[in-house]
Design goal:
Elements lengths: L11 H10 L5 H5 L19 H22 L7 H9 L5 H4 L4 H4 L3 H18 L5 H11 L4 H24 L6 H14 L2 H9 L13
Length: 214
């Protein structure tokens, strides 16, 4: 395998050549750039959050909700591992679209529908960045997530947003008061026993300081 001379990467003509002659695939290089996409763009944040951090937290929460569904409520159809994996990639299209603030995304059904189409196109653009032999494995993660898994991931996504709001309020940032109320209401309206169990048993700990955690 030919190795790139890293000492030449600061030369514009060398970078142009590498770009023109690229023979590999860029899917994972694109994913690594999720950390440059900032969330909550219209809000003043005490601790900024990027899409990569958010995706990891959603994966942790989706895995937890999947475990609760299976081990507490006996839902043997759910795979916590499948939920966690789908959650890792649930915002992958934002590498191309960027993160649209929630108030804008849900301003009207027309905007929401249009943005959904843009996300679908973005997912279609990501798949060719993989070798053909891997595309079928990633398609159900980027586009066609099974309904039972999608339900868990959406709940985890909203739960992550609510936890972010609680952490901002803990830092005395009143910018997130309304968002905290809205995300909690959305979680309650999901009427999911897995979510209720998590809220009852785990949510309060996110409002504590490190010294208060046990």
């Amino acid at each position: 395998m030919e190795h790139t001379d890293l000492s030449r990467l600061d030369l514009p003509e060398e970078r142009t050549r590498l770009s023109d002659e690229q023979g590999g695939y860029s899917f994972y290089a694109y994913l690594s750039r999720m950390r440059y996409i900032t969330r909550w763009g219209l809000m003043r944040n005490s601790c900024p959050e990027n899409v990569q951090e958010h995706s990891h937290m959603v994966a942790v929460l989706a895995h937890a909700l999947g475990l609760i569904s299976r081990d507490i409520y006996g839902n043997t159809r759910i795979s916590p591992e499948a939920c966690a994996t789908a959650a890792l990639f649930h915002d992958a299209p934002e590498i191309i679209t960027g993160d649209m603030p929630t108030p804008v995304k849900y301003y009207s059904p027309e905007i929401r529908e249009a943005y959904q189409k843009v996300e679908n196109v973005a997912a279609e653009q990501l798949l060719p960045m993989l070798p053909p032999a891997l595309r079928d494995s990633y398609e159900p993660l980027l586009k066609d997530v099974p309904p039972e898994v999608e339900r868990i991931v959406k709940a985890a996504d909203k739960l992550s947003a609510h936890i972010k709001c609680l952490e901002e309020l803990k830092a005395s940032n009143h910018e997130f008061i309304l968002a905290a109320r809205q995300t909690r209401q959305a979680l309650d309206e999901m009427n999911m026993p897995e979510v209720h169990y998590f809220i009852e048993n785990f949510l309060d700990s996110f409002t504590l300081t490190l010294d208060e955690l046990k």
